[in-house]
Fold:
Amino acid sequence: MNEPKDKSKSHRVATSDDIEVSTYLEIAKEIQGVQAAPKTEELPHGIKEAIAIIDFGSQYSRLIARRVRECNVYCELFHWETPLSKIMELHPRGFILSGGPASVYEKNAPLTPVGIYESHLPVLGICYGMQAIAHQLGGTVAPGSRREYGQAVLHVSEENSPLFYGLDDSLTVWMSHGDNVLDMPPGFRSSAYTENSPNAVITDGAKIFGLQFHPEVVHTPQGISIIKNYLNRVCGCHGAWTPGSFIHESIEAIKKQVGDGKVICALSGGVDSAVAAKLVHAAIGDQLTCIFVNNGLLRREEAERALNTFRKNLKMNVVYVDATDSFLEGLRGVLDPEKKRRAIGQEFIRVFENEATKLGKVDFLAQGTLYPDVIESATPESKAANKIKTHHNVGGLPSKMALSLIEPLRYLFKDEVREVGLQLGLPEDMVWRQPFPGPGLAIRIIGEVTREKLDILRGADWIVMNEIKKAKLYRQMWQTFAILTDVHSVGVMGDFRTYGYLVAVRAVTSQDAMTADWARLPYNLLATISNRIVNEVPGVNRVVYDITSKPPSTIEWE
Ligand code: XMP
Structure:
């Protein structure tokens, strides 16, 4: 049995407070002969304390970043091959090494970037990250007799470990590993064990820590406290980062970047482009012109409402183009979902460029690119995932216009963008709008898109949305919508036989759209939705509810 821990005192470990910020680049230079000067204008705005996460390819790397941000500490993910000089431009107060699918003893296995252990900054390795520490610092990592997967009980054996400050001696943790640290690197010791892992937590007693389990997943209930302890007690972070704290600096940076130049921004009606535009507008006012292309594939009243908000409430310059005819013309006879996406994407570029040209000389394009897009476009897994569907987002299209990019949200997650939007005074219904795909209703109509089908789908979609909002479930759902299938079936209304459309209803919960579960909506609510659709939407006589998760399905039907 361990002695009960004295929670009042904690171990004094070296923190990055011990190092002057100005010496960070000195360290990098020392280690790599780097001459890089800190490019402050390239740093994310408003960042005082940051953590660098080294990504070894785990499916949870992004989740680690989310957790660190939840502790109000700014962080960024870096691919494990990123040179230290680049990482040091963030001025990190410490590192987190992610998990990963490889084994450290394999040929060409990912390794921690050269110089991190020698940087005198704290390091926390998670799963593969811990094995990388052990392997690179002279310990032995080998396959375990069996894979450990699922929950385990962790017994903390070291008193006063800063990571476990304020926590119990026995914790439920979540494991997923085949390899184990057999021999500790010189100077390291075990701080905690589980039934199958004698070295479930390792440390050099000063600034390097390794966890065999995953503190970032919800199945480790106290994982967030462990991460917080690492950030506060080991790295010396104060947890002062909030998405709002970047607004002021971001506005200043946009002013500086744009000078007296002209900026255009494509509004989609969604939260990302709305927040990006609002931020740019706050910085440079009427030097910004937004272009709102109505592709005729939006939901009922959507274009009018968004336009009203931007023009009347927010007093922004918005060019509104109703290009319904040309989009529908481009979609005539197109049945294949990918061809639909391409047709819509091409038409969008054509209309957008046409409008932009009318504005005379334009220098910048503002876009609502978010951090997950930035991470995804940099990882090989996402390239594979992209082959499932080509996602056409409204921004980022007119490359031949040779505009410089302004992407004020490229370091933020979606919920952080919402917070910024609220602080900037965007209306709640815009900020909390569920995601809506760029190709709009076209990928919710199976088969050819026609005006008649769009009208039917709009009617059904309006009812779904209306009832979900009435039931106060809108914000809990990732997306809720209707799909117009190409199935007709027989029905009876009054004394008449009908042969009408089959409408499907989809409601999913999700964190990030990479996986999703179908929502267990109350039967009464489903009954009301179905009843209203068949009664109020002419041409529809049957409604089904989609009860498949992603995977194996996707959220959209096309
Ligand atoms: P899937 O259907 O792939 O959708 O599970 C995942 C998320 O992406 C949205 N989605 C799109 N968004 N252009 C977009 O801008 C597209 O072509 C597109 N396809 C799907 C979808 O609504 C969901 O949120």
Notes: Residues 337-358 form the longest helix (22 residues). The longest strand covers residues 140-156. The mean pLDDT is 88.
